[in-house]
Amino acid sequence: MGDRKMCSTVYGQESFDSAWHGLSDNVSNIILSDSTWKRLPHAQVETILLWLPLEYLCRCRAVSKEWNTLLSSSRFLNVWNDMSQNRNSWLVFLNNSSCFLYYCFSTGTWRRISTSFQSTSTSFRSKRIAYYNNCKGSSAGLLLLDKETSVYVCNPLTRTSLQLPQCLSMKTARTKGIVGGKDCYTVAASNCNSKSIEIYNSIDKEWTIVDRLNRHCHDMAFSDGFLLCLICRPPLGVMVYSFRGCNIDSIDFVASPPSLPTHSRLVLCNSSLLLITANRDYNYVVNQITVLKFQKNHANLSDSSWEEIGRMPPSVCDVFNRTTLRSRVGCSPFCECVGIGENIYFNRGGSREVVEFNVMQGLWNVLPTCPAD
Questions:
Q1: What pLDDT is stored for residue 4 in this prediction?
Q2: What are the beta bridge partners of residue 241?
């Protein structure tokens, strides 16, 4: 699960409608009407193609070599990226058939992301790992992917996938997020066995060990300039690592609530630090999910507190557990969550249900069920 940002065109909506319906209903229509498209001026074709939604942008590259070159070019993608209808964030989901999906906020539907450009060594088709959530984060259109012992940064728009070098202190990295964009990005990774934290910089193309990890670290969250670690043994709290580049500037400790369930997660949402706690029974059924917001006391950090801002209603819990109750095989007992804008999105590995919580309004919502394949 993850996040990204996506022109006004010289064409008005009315003049575009006739071309758009033939374009979006079925990609095969484009191939069948190839002669019609060839009669259009190149600039006009390019302007129309700027209205392509993400899934058609990927699929239309197969129309011709010329379209593939155009739709993969940085110049075209930069303009397409600024289109007003493309400025929604990404919510990325890996379903049980290892197909990447993203949620289209404007239409309220799930759309597929083409991964046909990935080689067999980087594709995610193994049924053995299908129920694991291999998408560890996203930023500005880049997806951070884990596959066994390898880490990849994938760009579906440019149809590229880069395997990062192996970490310095660990064979199996537990990546915790990516920040930045296609020109410059950083990746954070940790491993409880090696007790280390490493940062990858795309400019230097190498990992750097930035600090030692608390051996009781239960969960981590990564943002631009900050790495947060949730400590699950007394003293319970959050270690806040502030760094510039690959150098630690400061380390702060924030005490957590005295009663902290085992299944807790850290989430960064709209510059706020949130703590998600989940209570479940021995059958992996979630009974309650609580959202706590950190209220920082700038004068004295030790006097800071956590305020409860939301509790999942029983009716939403029933939906959240729906897939789990039908088949518990391959369903993770842990609640995965990600912050996008003012919302938090909840999911469980092996489940196709996604729940939304608006931090500002305190409202819960259930998204349409993700497609099974």
A1: 39
A2: 227, 251
